[in-house]
Every structure is written in C-alpha cells, then in structure tokens.
Amino acid sequence: MNRVCSIFSQLLQFVPRLEFEAAVQKAKHRDHGFASWDQFGAMMFCQLGHAQSLREITGGLACCEGKLKHLGMDGAPARSTLAYANENRPWQLYQDVFQRLLGRCQHEAQNHKRKFRFKHKLLSIDGTMVELSLSMFDWAVYKRTKGALKLHMVLDHDGYLPCYAVLTDGKESEMKVAKSMTFPPGTMLVFDRGYPDHDWWLSLTRSKVDFVTRLKDNVSYGVVSEREVPKGGNILRDEVIVLTSQQEIGPEAQLRRIEVWVEERQETLVFVTNNFRLAASTIAAIYKERWQIELFFKALKQSLKIKTFVGTSENAVQIQIWTALIAMLLLKYLKMRSTFAWSFSHLVALLRHQLFVYRDLMTWLNNPFQAPPALEGIHDQQLPLDFAPQAAR
C-alpha cells in the first residue's frame, strides 16, 4: 500500500519550500521564533478550512497536533503569536508567493482548450468593494460612517486565473488604477463602463492593445462609415466612428461601434472596440465573457474568507486577502488537473472536510466518492453474530 501524507500537506507542496524561503529573503524578513512557513500554513488553514477566528485557526491546528509535522510546521501557534505575525510581518511576502504560483498555474492552463480561436490573450479588468466596520478598521475610511477596501483585479481567461491584484482604499477609482497598469501588445482587454477615460482608450490603441467595452449613452461621436452586417442576425449596426473629443487626432482614434439586440434582456446593447478584424458577433461574445470576472469575485467572497477578518490592522487584512488569492489559485489549479466535473463551490465544500485525511490528492480529485483502497468493502460488511448457545460452566 502506498503511504501518503494528508491532503492539506499535499496542497501546501504546490508551494515549494525553497521558493517560499526565497520569497521570505526577498521580503527582507528574518524569522524569530515563529516561522513564516508556520504563519502561511495557519492562514491557508483559515482559508481552506473556513476558520472564522484566530481561536478556530489555532484550535483547529492544535486538534491535529500529531499531523502538523508533515506540514513542515513546528506546532499550532498561540493566538497572540499569530495575531502579532499578521500585524507586523510584510504582506509583500504573500504577494510574491502568489506571483510564483501563478506561473505554474498559467503553464497548466496552456494545456486546456480556449473558448475563442483568436490568438489574443484575453484579459478582463474590474474592481470589487470589501466593506469594513469603520469602528474596528479606522484606517479604511470610505464614507463618514463606513469603511471599505477595493480589490482591483485582472482576470486571465485562460483558466480564469487572477493574474494581477492590487488593494486600495474604497475611494480609489478603477480608472486611476487601470492607468498604472501596462499590458503587452496583442492583448485583448475587456472592461465595463466604469472605465470611461477616452484618452486611456487611445493609449491602449497606440500600445497595440485591443479592447472591448460598453459605450455610454451620452458620448458624442461622428460616424465615419457603415460596415456590412449579416441579415437576419442579432447585429443591428456596425459602424466606424470617431469620438468628438478626438476628431482632430486622425485615423488612429477611429473606433468601431456595434449595436446588438439581446433577446434574453429584450434590449439593445452598444459595444465599442478598436479591433476592426473580428466579426461583430465575436466582439459581442467577448464582452459577454467579461461576466467571468464577476463570477470570480462572487466565488472569492462566498467560498473563501475575505468578508470578515481575523485581524484589524491594514497589514493583517492584506495578508488575509493575499492568502485567499493563493488559495484561489490552488483550487483553480486542482480543478484544471482533475478529470471529475467539479463545480468550484462543490470542490471547496468537500475539500474542507478532507484536509487532514491521509489519501492521494489526485486520486481523490478524480474520483471523490470512491473509498480509499484500504477501506474498500470494509464499511459494507456486516458484523457476524454468533447465536449459538454457550456451554454451561
């Protein structure tokens, strides 16, 4: 019989210990007493085990004291020790771990079929609010009586992986963060109407980055030419336009405006893009694919722990959100590797109950309802009962 360590230990092995120690060195942090790896293991248990507080994290690990050595942990940390580490150790360490793990996940995603045939790297960009109590998180002022953070994200549609994330205060606009990002030439970027800066659109065109977005109703433009549309389809209009604010720039400022009738919503949607090669129906399908980043935010908030926090300092909140993103990468990676038709929520729910079970992770992923080889048939057997009369003594 093959001997394996716990499923939780096998999950942590996707983050090689040497790479983690290199990230510790890069963060210019020196461990004193409580190892950074132990902190990482505790916070991953918080995310994957859905622990609600420091007491649940430390207590849950303490209950598995005999099973922590194979995790590389010296033991379950005290609550005060973990709280102090979350408050003072640099959150950039976990950002670096996230970037290292992302490369491995993107390599795996290349082996899977893409939804679109074009060669562009499809990325979507958006942000989501994380509401906080202003009385406990006084550094996260959003409104007079409310606190909030904003998580800005770029989603890679090859595997639906988060490839870029930044945390800002709740007042920071998505447009300001987007301007600080750079995208390689040939990228196809899709975003909603929350990014209305037309000068930024022009800079994307000059950088050879294609984009698809919605056009606001109050935008002034002029029509340069009409493009032919298929008859009998849902494409109502396909035009080459120039925004009034950019009409003196020249041909590089030309955009493509597409009107599409959406039967399910019984309304007409207007898209704008700087790509003149793809079919109008493909442009509409690309924008529809933007919904995946909304589903990502929904899964992140419902399945992992980023709506409530085990620490109140900004550093502790950053660490918890970055460990949630690391856990998300691990779960996406497992879903890509598995041959079983997992939904994301189902995978998270069942994995939570299997963390300290000793069985092969990939075998369980591919056939989660199959009993381990050592137990096959045991639970189905009935205990033999001997009803024969005993001899008198």
Name the beta content range: 15-25%
Number of discrete helical segments: 13
How far is the first residue's CA from the last residue's CA? 45 Å
Estimate the helix proportion, in percent.
25-40%
Query: What Rg, in angstroms, do the CA atoms define?
Result: 26 Å
Q: Order of SSEs, N→C?
A: HHHHHHEEEHEHEEEEEHHHHH
Taking pLDDT < 50 over at least 5 consecutive residues as the criterion, the unreliable ranges are none
Q: What would the principal axes of the Cα set say about the shape?
A: globular
Strands across the major sheet, in which order? 3-2-1-4-5-9-8-7-6
Question: What average pLDDT do the residues reach?
Answer: 89
Helix vs. strand class: alpha+beta
The tally of beta strands, per DSSP, is 9
